[in-house]
Amino acid sequence: MALTKESVIDQITVLEDGQIQVRRADKLKEDGVEIAKAYHRHVVVPGASLVGEDARVRQVGEAVHTTSVVSEYQASLAE
Questions:
Q1: Of the candidates 63, 78, 79, which has an alpha carbon nearest to the alpha carbon of residue 18?
Q2: Which phi and psi (to 5°) does residue 20 adopt?
Q3: Would you say the C-alpha torsion 53, 22, 61, 45 has a positive or negative sign?
Q4: How far apart are CA 33 and CA 27, in angstroms?
Q5: Residue 30's pLDDT is what?
Q6: What is the domain partition of the chain in residue ranges?
Q7: Is there a contact between 20 and 3 (Cβ–Cβ < 8 Å)?
Q8: The whole model's pTM is what?
Q9: Could you tell me which residues come within 8 angstroms of residue 17 by beta carbon, excluding any fewer than 6 positions away?
C-alpha cells in the first residue's frame, strides 16, 4: 500500500479588475487510486509579486498585469 500526495493547479481565473484567482487541488492517492481531494485557493492582485507562483500563473500575470491594469486597480483601492 503506497500513499502519495499530488498537488496541481487546476483552475486559473482572471477577474475583470485583473485579479487572478488560483485553485490548487491536493490529491491523496493509494496505489494510484485517488482516495481524497482538497482544494486551496489564493488570489494574486495586480502589482503583486509573481515569484513563487506556478509557471502558468506567472505567464497569465505577466500578460494581464499591465501597467494600466495595476494603476487602475490601485486607484480603485484608494476610493
A1: 63
A2: -110, 120
A3: negative
A4: 10
A5: 94
A6: 3-78
A7: no
A8: 0.87
A9: 46, 69, 72, 73, 76
